[in-house]
Amino acid sequence: ELLERIVSQSGAGGREEYFRACRQSILVSADMSHGLHPNYADKHDPQHQPRLNGGPTLKLNANARYMTDGLGTAIFEQACQQAGVSCQYQVSRSDMRTGSTIGPITVGQTGLRTLDVGNPMLAMHSIRETAGTADAWAMIRTLAQFLTSDWS
């Protein structure tokens, strides 16, 4: 509703223009992701094990706990490539429950294409969270590239 009001009050148009704007928009839900912990490697898909200081992580889940789709994956991969940054993947095992993000809620309420991304870290939600400093700079470069590119 807020987005629709912004379109309407900015003079950009009415309801039709709002829906067109939504279809041309991409929301990036950027927070953190579970990095590979050597003591719990079995919690990760064997082919997708995000490592600290290995670059931003694109979060994917077959049970729709994350909302990244194929086109969103391609767009984020391209932003990483253009920024000179490695892209990693957090693919949750389908036989294990995982956390979630605001992605599913946002898609359900707005219909916006949503990417769930994050930097890998160890011990998420504990008092000893550990992340790589290189990942912060890599994510900044990637998001700057994403924001300045034309994805239409």
Task: Describe this structure as you would to a colleague.
The chain is of the alpha/beta class and 152 residues long. Helix content is 36%, strand content 19%. It contains five helices and five strands. The protein has helices spanning 2-9, 15-23, 70-83, 103-110, 133-148, and strands at residues 26-34, 57-60, 88-91, 113-122, 130-131. Strands 1, 2, 3, 4 and 5 form a five-stranded mixed beta sheet that branches. Strand 4 and strand 5 form a beta hairpin. The model has no long low-confidence stretch (mean pLDDT 86).
Features:
152 residues, alpha/beta, 5-stranded mixed beta sheet, 36% helix, 19% strand, globular
Give the arrangement of secondary structure elements.
Layout: H1 2-9, H2 15-23, E1 26-34, E2 57-60, H3 70-83, E3 88-91, H4 103-110, E4 113-122, E5 130-131, H5 133-148
Parallel strand pairs: 1-4, 2-3
Antiparallel strand pairs: 2-4, 4-5
Helix pairs in contact: 1-2, 3-5
Class per helix and strand makeup: alpha/beta
Number of helices: 5
Order of helices and strands: HHEEHEHEEH
Residue share in β-strands: 15-25%
| Tally of strands | 5
Radius of gyration computed on alpha carbons: 17 Å
Mean pLDDT: 86
N-C termini distance: 24 Å
Q: Please tell me what the overall shape is.
A: globular
Q: Low-confidence parts, pLDDT < 50 over ≥5 residues?
A: none
Sheet of most strands: 5 strands, mixed
Q: Which bin fits the share of residues in helices?
A: 25-40%
